[in-house]
């Protein structure tokens, strides 16, 4: 959806129709998932509905969660996402194989114009193979987290993270390379 361009959420027809419908669909399914007891047989069926059958059987997402547009997300094999995930995913989110995401992480692909809150900009997030995202980390629009990198708990990631790098803090800075 308009990658990198500023759009007005009140006047952009794509946003008002396609995005609004998908947000309503995702919110309803997330609500149902969040009310489903852990391990209930309906849990996987609801996840399959949310991701339209694109969530690999080897990947796990614990509830509760809030995903505003599941259709714009791609999740690889052997991904584990702990409870409390928040995804504002209109800009697109790709999570490659063997990624682990800790509790209460946020993946945010949208940003507002600070002078006009109706104007939005979307940029994708890409989390590459084998990366770890710590608890309560925030990944902001346009960020790529490199292969086998680690984002420390509570980090606010505003810039790309190179492969095999550990980052932490707010804003996130390099701590060291992964051995």
Automatic annotation (TrEMBL):
Ion transport in keyword set: no
PANTHER family in the cross-refs: ACETYLTRANSFERASE C18B11.09C-RELATED (PTHR23416:SF23), SIALIC ACID SYNTHASE-RELATED (PTHR23416)
Superkingdom assignment: Bacteria
Protein's organism: Streptococcus pantholopis
Taxonomic classification: Bacteria, Bacillati, Bacillota, Bacilli, Lactobacillales
GO molecular function: O-acyltransferase activity
Family according to the record: Belongs to the transferase hexapeptide repeat family.
Entry-linked PROSITE patterns: HEXAPEP_TRANSFERASES
InterPro entries registered for this protein in UniProt: Hexapep, Hexapep_transf_CS, Hexapeptide_acetyltransf, Trimer_LpxA-like_sf
Protein name: Acetyltransferase
Keywords: Repeat, Transferase
């Amino acid at each position: 959806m308009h990658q990198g361009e500023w759009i007005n959420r009140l006047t952009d027809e794509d946003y008002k129709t396609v995005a609004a419908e998908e947000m309503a669909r995702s919110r309803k399914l997330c609500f149902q998932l969040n009310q489903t007891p852990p391990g209930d047989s309906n849990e996987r069926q609801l996840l399959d509905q949310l991701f339209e059958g694109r969530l690999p059987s080897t990947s796990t997402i614990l509830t509760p969660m809030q995903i505003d547009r599941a259709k714009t997300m791609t999740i690889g094999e052997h991904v584990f996402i702990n409870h409390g995930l928040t995804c504002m995913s209109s800009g697109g989110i790709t999570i490659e194989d063997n990624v682990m995401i800790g509790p209460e992480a946020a993946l945010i692909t949208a940003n507002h114009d600070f002078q006009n809150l109706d104007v939005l900009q979307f940029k994708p997030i890409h989390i590459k193979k084998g990366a770890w995202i710590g608890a309560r980390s925030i990944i902001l629009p346009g960020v790529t987290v490199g292969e086998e990198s680690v984002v420390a708990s509570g980090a606010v990631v505003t810039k790309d993270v190179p492969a095999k790098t550990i980052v932490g803090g707010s804003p996130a800075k390099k701590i060291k390379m992964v051995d």
